[in-house]
Amino acid sequence: MTPLLxxxxxxxxxxLVFPAAIGQLARARMGQQxxxxxxxxxHGKAGTPTAGGVVFILVALVLYLAADxxxxxxxxxxxxxxxGALGFIDxxxxxxxxxxxxxxxxxxxxxQLATGALLGYLALRWGLTSQLVxxxxxxxxxxxxxxxxxxxxxxxSNAFNLTDGSDGLAAGAGAITFGALxxxxxxxHRPGAGLMPAILAGVLTGFLFYNLFPARLFxxxxxxxxxxxxxxxxxxxxxxxxxxxxxxxxxVIETVSVIAQVASFKMTxxxxxxxxxxxxxxxxxxxxxxxxxxxxxxxxLVAAVLALALSRPGxxx
Length: 317
Prior knowledge:
Elements: H1 3-27, H2 53-68, H3 71-97, H4 105-125, E1 130-132, E2 138-140, H5 144-163, H6 169-187, H7 195-211, H8 220-237, H9 244-247, H10 249-268, H11 278-284, H12 289-316
Antiparallel strand pairs: 1-2
Helix pairs in contact: 1-2, 1-7, 2-3, 2-7, 2-8, 3-4, 3-8, 4-5, 5-8, 5-10, 6-7, 6-8, 6-12
């Protein structure tokens, strides 16, 4: 099957499965816990079913077995499952604890680094170390892929998690990013490497039917950590790892806004924006969530076009 066909299949399948998932998660009392220090507008979201990322993993697994079964697809699927497992433990811990805390930050970062190192080791063993270097063609990372993958997974999964804080925002931006990775694989005449990114783009598009404001379902850490890890894995399989910071620019900006806010407050006692991550600044400034999501999607689309334009000579080589 082509990336376009699996995208459509994932979109339809996920759109049909999510209503049942909403009911099951509600009966399991998997309701979202809201941070007290977050935007006041978000307090009404408490109790909305979360951990919808479980569906991402199930649909990806079914379509991988039905239409993919490639080494590249398996690599991304492994990343999706590992990230999702950590996210589910975090979601479950937060819900059962009655507060939006879950695992400690140090615990998560250690597991994320270990996950990234494992993926880097698999990439080395499976011959997935060749990456496009901006303005310098394609080069193999060799054993360095283990360190680079560890750092990239920790950064990517946390960036996706930070961005997932406003209805539809992370899902739409993620769909664009995964869609671009699928297109990159096609432009390299390696459509097989684009199947799993296309599946995830389709699942996220289907998820938007239930995640746009007012959201009936959240992906939770189960989804955001799974997708952030899979995003890095898909960048590895398509040889696009060094371009990922540009391609995923919205996620990078969201993360930088948190780092800058914390650093500014610790050093000067002042905040540089009203609330971090950046999308919260706009929400507390009075923005509605749907227009906000549309602007962030536009940013993701522009970043994807720039990444494709800059990498085009290397993709054609």
